[in-house]
Amino acid sequence: VVRNDKMLEWWIHVGLICIPLVAVYLHIPPPQLSTALQKWHGAGKVFHFRGFKIFYRDSLGALGSSDVIILLHGFPTSSYDWSKIWDPLTQRFHRVIALDFLGFGFSDKPRPHKYSIFEQASVVEALVAHLGLSNQRVNLVSHDYGDTVALELLYRSDQNRTGRLTLNSLCLSNGGLFPETHHPRLLQMLLKDSSFLAPILTRLTNFVIFQKGIGEVFGPYTQPTDAEFWDMWTGLRYNDGNLVLDSILQYINQRLKHRERWVGALTSTYVPLHMIYGPLDPVNPHPQFIRLYQKLVQRSTVTILDEHISHYPQLEDPTGFLNAYFNFIHSF
Q1: What is the pTM of this model?
Q2: 46: in domain
Q3: In a 3-state reduction of DSSP, which class is residue 126?
Q4: Domain carrying residue 301
Q5: Could you tell me which residues come within 8 angstroms of residue 83 by beta carbon, excluding any fewer than 6 positions away?
Q6: How does pLDDT run across 98-115, given as a tens digit for each residue?
């Protein structure tokens, strides 16, 4: 009887562990949008790119200015990353524009699909054309994954490619520009390289795993609130975005393969450049990353934020980020 009780207890434990895993695997419905996310979504619009819906925001701001700024977000989040600096930017720029890349945020997340940095650059060019800004000089601000998209846009612009943007300036932040100083997280490596594990891992990724992973790339004193973590997770889960993470993560391999093209664009351009850097970033560690950047990109100016700011400077230190950016914009 004792043995049977032990067996029963064991099976109950197994059941309690398996039920949530199976439930997640079979799709717990995505979380509801918070009021803040609903407001962001409600203020946005959609345009069509090769049959896919792309979400973007376009705010008319400062009168008497003709300046346009376009914001390119990072992985695995969305345009909502710019929410804390949005209003101050509208007070300085005539138009403030941000989009959710294909596979991110409120945009379509097709699967299967070969996601690439090249395609995302084409999405940005298509948005600029859609908004009638093809001949307008634009200021790009980018973060993380967006930095690499920005480098492809820079390459096309400097090469006079058809459909290119006319860049007035480029400000990068905490992106893995150099494969040699880039340290992706363990889950990213597993998703990017293990074809048989990836579909299981993407389905089993839950809020707890997500929160731990994102928390590790924020500084100890600038952690997101529970509501902010939840908003990031909601944006990821929208349209089953967790199921395309492995496809999107191929960008890490693309950075390695196209290093000469993208780093070359950075080192040879005459477009005014700035780098805003949170030095506590485990993905692009200090001082190796910034030393290499300053050595290779000698025309760029650099702002290193407070020592406790990590991988998401625009969310961790919005005031420091804005001050650095406005100083840069007023310098040329």
Answers
A1: 0.93
A2: yes
A3: helix
A4: 32-328
A5: 36, 40
A6: 999 999 999 999 999 999
